């Protein structure tokens, strides 16, 4: 009799232990954002993956052109990285990135010694290649169409072709003349912000991705531009846009500024106040326009950078970016881990930054293609 009781008691204890383990395991999965951090998100397969709005490609013919002109040594580590879709997709899978939106980086489509016509031809070839990648890897790769500045008529024609004909184009990536001007110049007939060009883009509700470029060669700076001056380039672009009322005059445009828009979030209040003194308009109006920008997290997810960016723009205007392949893989992995760690208690913010904000920026164009993937 006692033996049977002992057996039944032991069986009951085992059953209770199994039930308790199931309950606690289930709870830990449901509350992983609080208990375990976001490193377990990909493993659960219940969270929508990231959309990378700051990724680069170097089409083979573009890389060969840079090498032939001696420009292949100008990357961040004194070399231009080679790119292929297979390696990029493998890295995307490793980081849980579903879609990457590509563009070429500095020096862009207008190379030293090239005429506007030659630059325009190169930009079209780059855009055709981007379109081919988007069609071949539907839902995984997209691209920003490259435009050449300050060729107003040529860039308008290419913008229309890219947005209306190359249906894969998610937006526009303007590139200035190398070593001549900052990426965004003042509004004038021949400038990068010419009203005619802006009207065309505004009528289509285009998204414009502003990426930093090398500064004027005459500066002869000892520190490589990508270390410090890239951050100034996008910060200056933001100030130029709001000072010239571009964001207010063309409200249908959506802007993404790379690398957290440099130090704009940190200096936003100073910029707004200073512009008010220069123009006589209210600082509040400039701050309101500065807060309309979206910025990406590419190499900008440090514990000191994120609080400033979120404090000024909120998580609703921050989107994920990797800077692949110009940033080394280990740097991208570190930055992504820092972002996940910073957001590990805020699951909703994780969703916003990694995919929800991007879907809102691009609307049905990107969403429809991602649905086809599933």
UniProtKB/TrEMBL annotation:
<keyword id="KW-0812">Transmembrane</keyword>
<feature type="domain" description="Amidohydrolase-related">
    <location>
        <begin position="51"/>
        <end position="363"/>
    </location>
</feature>
<keyword id="KW-0456">Lyase</keyword>
<keyword id="KW-1133">Transmembrane helix</keyword>
<comment type="similarity">
    <text>Belongs to the metallo-dependent hydrolases superfamily.</text>
</comment>
<keyword id="KW-0472">Membrane</keyword>
<dbReference type="GO" id="GO:0016831">
    <property type="term" value="F:carboxy-lyase activity"/>
</dbReference>
<dbReference type="InterPro" id="IPR006680">
    <property type="entry name" value="Amidohydro-rel"/>
</dbReference>
<protein>
    <recommendedName>
        <fullName>Amidohydrolase-related domain-containing protein</fullName>
    </recommendedName>
</protein>
<keyword id="KW-0210">Decarboxylase</keyword>
<feature type="transmembrane region" description="Helical">
    <location>
        <begin position="6"/>
        <end position="24"/>
    </location>
</feature>
<dbReference type="InterPro" id="IPR032466">
    <property type="entry name" value="Metal_Hydrolase"/>
</dbReference>
<dbReference type="InterPro" id="IPR032465">
    <property type="entry name" value="ACMSD"/>
</dbReference>
<dbReference type="Pfam" id="PF04909">
    <property type="entry name" value="Amidohydro_2"/>
</dbReference>
